[in-house]
Amino acid sequence: MTTTLYSIIVEFVQIAVVLLAGPALAGWVRMLKCRMQGRTSAGVLQPYRDIMKLFVKDVVLAENASWIFRFTPYLVFGATVMAGAIIPVISTVLPSAPAADIIALVAIFAMARFFTALAGMDAGTAFGGMGSSREMTVATLAEPAMLMSVFTVSLVSGSTSLSQMAQVVTTNPLMLRPSLAFALLAFILIAVAETGRIPVDNPATHLELTMLHEAMTLEYSGRHLALIEWAKMIKLFLYAALGVALFFPWGIAGATPLWMLPAAVFYLAVKMAIVGAVIVLIETPLAKMRIFRVTEFLGMAFLFATIGMLSYFMLE
Amino acid sequence: MTMPSPMALAVYSVVILLIMAISALVFKSRQGFLVNAVFAFSSLACVMALTAGFQAVSNGAVETLILPIGLPDLPFYLRIDALSGFFIAIIGLLGLFVSIYSLGYVRGFVGQRSITSLAVFYPLFMAGMILVVISDDAYFFMIAWELMAVSSFFLVCFEDESGANRRAAFIYLLIAHIGAVMILLSFGLMAGFASGFENFKGYTFSAMRGAHISPGWASAAFLLAFFGFAAKAGVVPLHVWLPEAHPAAPSNVSALMSGVMLKTALYGIIRLTFDILTVSQWWWGGIVLVLGLISAVTGILYAIMQVDLKRALAYSSVENVGIILISIGLSMIFTAHKMHELASLALIAGLYHSLNHAMFKGLLFMGAGAILHATHERNMERMGGLIHKLPWTATLFLIGCLSISAMPPFNGFVSEWLTFQAFLLSPALPNPILKLLFPLGAALLALTAALSARCFVKVYSVTFLGRWRGEHPCAAREVNWPMKAGMCLCAASCLLLGVFPTAVIGWADMAPLILIGAKISVSAKTFGWLWLTPVSSVRASYSAPVIFIGITAVVAAAYAVFHSRRSSKTALTRAPVWGCGFEKLTNRMQYNSTSFAMPLRRIFGFLMMIKESVTPQDANAHGAFQRKFVYRLMINDRVWYLLYKPFSKAAFWCARKAGFMQHGRIQIYLLYSFITLIVLLVFA
User: Fold this and answer.
1) In a shared domain, residues B459 and B403
2) What are phi and psi of B349, to 5 degrees?
3) Are residues B247 and B322 in the same domain?
4) What 8-state DSSP symbol labels residue B379?
5) Given this model, what pLDDT does residue B52 score?
6) How many other β-carbons are positioned within 10 Å of the β-carbon of residue A20?
7) Does one domain contain both B337 and B466?
8) Of B535, B515, B491, B533, whose CA–CA distance to B86 is shortest?
9) Would you call A38 helix, strand, or coil by DSSP?
10) Is B339 helix (H, G, I), strand (E, B) or coil?
11) B377 in the same domain as B444
12) A282: left (phi > 0), else alpha (psi -120 to 50), else beta?
């Protein structure tokens, strides 16, 4: 009974962490980036202020927008938070973790993207369509690579359940596996593409030729935009947390003892700070690449993941 | 009163269908009555078939019947087991929904054209499909198979005034018969080895089951049968009839052909390989797997490129048949390696996807029919914004799109998830070739899933979202209630089949049990009905109800917190879209089907034959000062030009060369006969 209660508490703590830490990570990345580029930053808390501001703004809808356009922000937010309840962010003991393994998790993100792309086409502008078409192209290439990468990890742990995968890595003695190294490389490339960061997409641009994700959500305003932005920040956080849980899960809380939970939150904060720094290091010296170069970029990710899987089948 | 047995129910439903076909000829002068009678009684027959199939699977019992009709000494053998029961259930379920839909859909033809041929061949087609899956001898199987093929041929050329439709129907008939000949040859091979050939009993499936076939001949029989059935199932490269025939047929028939008829071919493959021949060689599964992968990827890539809504759906059927073949191939490989639990997992994945595909593809074709009914348009480039005109159809079509794109918690996801699980359990296999093939297969399946999401985002958004692209204002109105009801039922089953997979697997598990001798429902349900754990809970788990409720709860909470007027006090206003400062934004400036598919055309274009040209309309003006350009884009199936064109050219060449003997003069023909006689006399 106590373990059930404990796991439910953990679940709620985790959802709270996910909701709150998403904007914090985005703020941290922006702040570091400003420092790197010699600009003055608005501080870590700026994303919170942005979201709060958007929530009190009026909504302006395109004349032609249908219910799909209005429903999408809620669904995207819902799917993202659901994903946050499943990924072992602070603990491997989550009551909702068995609801979806890694394949289902990828599908939940895919559903959010499906609706965002529909919303992009809904207003009937060329911008929205362009964003949807491009985003779906990137996703088409990224998703198989993503699955291949996590499949490699799942072969190592003999499971596709996320908690199980994290547990196997933490409990087994540390050994270097070539398959995991390739899978990690592939995962980083894919995470960059999926979360819309430089060099695949530029989250800070509104220039017509370079937008991917932003073009889809260009028509949004007010609380709808707030939800979409918030979900996007959570998604970045979740991809970072997923990578950490799959490849560097040490420090994550298990079933017992209780004090591991605050420790896990602390470890997570440290790891996320490092991930944020890595993102800034990747983004600062690079420029966004042409959309058709993304094919090669993701093709490389796919190749890494396949090599990782083959090396598992051949070597391990 | 006791419930009639599954066999009796199935036979009764066939009898009802046959009576309907005959009486349709009698009542052909009263067209309106004909629509109601034929489709109402077809619905009844489908309910009976559904009950029969459901019971046959849940009982797991085998029931046989010998009908003393046909040629002397060659009675018809019928048999229902869990496998045929599963497919009868699919036929009955989709048949029921489509028959209800047809009540409204076919009414639209009354007054425009005679619907008699539809009313005659629709029940015959259904009867043929049911008979295919319950027949238990080669002779009767071929009769049922031909009944199905020929009646569907007449349904495809229902609107026979257009040359394209007649051509589509002809290609369909041709390829169906090439397939039928191969199946017949395979039966002949097996009957030759079966005991009892002397007393005319070798043609029954039970005699073939007992036959001792040498591995070489067994492989020959397998290959013949597989390619024969593959022609019907639309496996690449034998798929060319499919994108022609499906758009040509009326939409209710397309729904049945794609949703159910393709499945009877898959039934044939499963019946022959698992039951009659019993899988002995792993490379049989390898061939099935590789062709399945090729079909899946090419099918969906071509689907993305289409601008005709029904053609896109037809190509997506090629993809889904490919996915089902992947699972069947995996199951064969595992069976050959004596890994029975994994084999039954893969087979369940394939069967489940067959059921799911019947539901969502049926729904999508019915939706396409509703759009056609409302707008008289099949070209997506001239649609748009239909969500405002057809709110019901739009919502139901969206459910179909989500299901086919494998989005949780809908049904398409469950079966694809099970297939992925089967792939990931493969490291235990001892074969090095398979160890290379499996990761690649998993990758291609993942690519297929992602591409299909992209395809249906395009299909849905170009058709229903944005603004109307047609030249004349859109005059579409929502369709009538039987059509809505048919689609609603399909959509509801898409959701239910997706949310309660454990119940479905617990029911369908009888089929792998009788074929392979292992079932997965014991391990699949160890955690309770809420959690689907195909192997063990540590290995993998999925719970559609939890995801469904979880997402709904968060969405509802977000809506309650952020939407309600009291807390946010924000207003909602409508305004024109931002046109970047340009004044005249027209509806033609929206992204359309072609432009949406453009990035993929560049990436995967090497797989297709693409002819693209931009010609200035005014030849005299300078290139930089043109007022209008004409853009032409042709995307052709490479298979057609690589495989079929040379073949048909060769056939024509032979015919022309043989033609010099034909002069049309009777004397010369008599001379030919005379010479032949002499030659025969000399050599005999």
Assistant:
1) yes
2) -60, -45
3) no
4) B
5) 95
6) 12
7) yes
8) B515
9) coil
10) coil
11) yes
12) alpha
Cβ–Cβ of A164/B538 closer than 8 Å?
yes
B544: nearest Cα among A107, A160, A110: A107
- Domain extent, residue B89, equals 1-220+242-255
d(CA B70, CA B140): 9
Shortest alpha-carbon distance between residue A10 and chain B (Å): 16
Nearest CA in chain A to B465: A122
Dist. CA B149–CA B183, nearest whole Å: 13
Residue B175 to residues B227, B239, B258, B403, Cα–Cα distance (Å): 11, 9, 16, 30
Q: Classify B72 as helix, strand or coil.
A: coil
Query: Residue A118: is it exposed, middle or buried by C-beta count within 10 angstroms (0-12/13-18/19+)?
Result: buried
Using CA atoms, how far apart are residues B351 and B344, in angstroms rounded to an integer?
10
- The answer to whether the CB atoms of A143 and B446 lie below 8 A apart is yes
Where does the pLDDT of residue B1 fall: very low under 50, low under 70, confident under 90, or very high at 90 and above? low
CB-CB under 8 Å, B542 with A100: yes
Peptide bond just before B616 cis, omega within 30 deg = no
B197 pLDDT tier (thresholds 50, 70, 90): low
Q: How does strand B63-67 pair with strand B572-575?
A: unpaired
Q: Do B585 and A98 touch (CB under 8 A)?
A: no
Q: pLDDT category, B218, cuts 50, 70, 90? A: very high
pLDDT digits (tens, 9 = 90+) for A132-143: 999 999 999 998
Amino acid at A129: G
Report DSSP letters for B186-199, one per residue. HHHHHHHHSTTTTT
Same domain, B548 and B597: no
Decide the pairing of beta strands B76-80 and B629-636: unpaired
Query: What number of residues does chain B have?
Result: 684
More confident residue, A292 or B97: B97
- The pLDDT value recorded for residue B525 is 62
3-state secondary structure at position B135:
strand
Q: Do B375 and B406 belong together in one domain?
A: yes
What HEC string does B393-415 produce? Answer: HHHHHHHHHHHHCCCCCCHHHHH
What is the number of CB-based contacts under 8 A between chain A and chain B? 271
Subunit contact B454:A139, Cβ cutoff 8 A: yes
Q: Note whether B225 and B186 are within 8 A (CB).
A: yes
A266 φ, ψ (degrees, to nearest 5): -65, -50
Question: What length is written for chain A?
Answer: 316
Residue B261 within a domain: no
Q: How many CB atoms lie within 10 A of CB B206?
A: 15
Q: Which two tokens stand for residue B530?
A: 């809420």
Of the CA atoms within 13 Å of residue B174, those in its CB half-sphere come to: 15
Chain B contact present for A155, CB below 8 A = yes
Q: Does A60 touch chain B (CB under 8 A)?
A: yes
Report domain extents, chain A. Answer: 2-315
Q: Cα–Cα distances in Å, from B651 out to A294, B30, B54, B648, B654?
A: 46, 46, 47, 5, 5
Q: Which of residues 66-95 of A touch B (CB under 8 A)?
A: 66-68, 74-75, 77-79, 81-82, 85
Confidence check on the interface: ipTM exceeds 0.90, yes or no: yes
Q: Which amino acid is at B647?
A: F
pLDDT higher than threshold 90 for residue A314: no
Q: Is A222 on the interface with B (CB under 8 A)?
A: yes
How many whole angstroms separate alpha carbon B21 and alpha carbon B347?
35
Residue B562 lies in a domain: no
Supply the pLDDT for residue B524: 61
pLDDT tens for B368-423 read 999 999 998 889 999 999 999 999 999 999 999 999 999 999 999 999 999 999 88
Count of domains for chain B: 4
- Alpha-carbon span B635 to B43, nearest angstrom: 40
| Banded model confidence at residue B178, pLDDT cuts 50, 70, 90 | very high
Question: Does residue B74 lie in a domain region?
Answer: yes
Spatial CB neighbours of B18, under 8 Å, sequence gap ≥ 6: B123, B124, B127
